[in-house]
Amino acid sequence: MLSVKNLCKEFKSGEHKVLAVNNLNMEVPDGIFASIIGRSGSGKSTLLSMLGALDKPTSGEIIVDNTDIAKMGDRKLIKYRRDKIGFVFQSYNLVPNLTAIENVMLPMEFAGMNKNAQESRASKLLKSVGLTEDKYLRRPKRLSGGEQQRVAIARALANKPKLILADEPTGNLDSSTGSIIIKLLKNLAKSEGTTIIAVTHDIGIANQAEKTFTLKDGKLTN
Ligand SMILES: Nc1ncnc2c1ncn2[C@@H]1O[C@H](COP(=O)(O)OP(=O)(O)O)[C@@H](O)[C@H]1O
Ligand SMILES: [Mg+2]
User: Fold this and answer.
1) How far, in Å, is the centroid of ligand 2 from the Cα of 167?
2) Domains of the chain as residue ranges with CATH
3) From atom 6 of ligand 1, which residue's Cα is the shortest distance away?
4) In Å, how far are 48, 149, 151, 205 from 181, measured between CA atoms?
5) Which of 15, 162, 212, 218 is surrounded by the most beta carbons within 10 Å?
């Protein structure tokens, strides 16, 4: 269970203050595919960044595995991000000068796994996300958007994360590719026992989620 309590994030620019996340409470059971919807500016990315420890809350608690990550120091947070979280972004964010398989191996390299083990797990993951073998040695620019997102999902799964955070994962894809990517994420949540939280403003995607959170002005409306 991921549990968020009284979470706030305030941004200041000069005199101006924005309460991007406003005293938010949420609970996400393990192993489900959840979505967060809401208009642009409602605080979705800010919330996701805090869940993934890319950004620190102004106040409140984020309890993962019985530990409040909002209270962790920087060294522990680096480990938390590496071991517990997989990120998937709208713009894929693959390393351009690495091949598809090298991109998937990268987080395992950071975790200190040996090369052979990295390679065999990366091939297995690329297979499970449906990338054909002839594309494993291609660089991202020689892959379609849908293929790049498959690689990004395989990379997100590399270190067997507890939680995958996806920010508009289908935002750059046509709707049929987008729906394939969502099905893939949903199946992975089940087969790998990973919790997936996907931010989207596509209501079709939200409808496929087991739980949907609606954000408005930094607060949940449901
Ligand atoms: N780094 C930042 N500095 C100042 N304001 C920010 C920053 N990031 C987000 N905001 C503000 O916080 C609010 C929520 O933004 P965001 O989380 O990006 O919304 P969403 O992802 O739902 O579009 C917006 O008003 C936005 O302008
Ligand atoms: Mg956003």
Assistant:
1) 7
2) 2-215 (3.40.50.300)
3) 11
4) 19, 8, 11, 10
5) 218
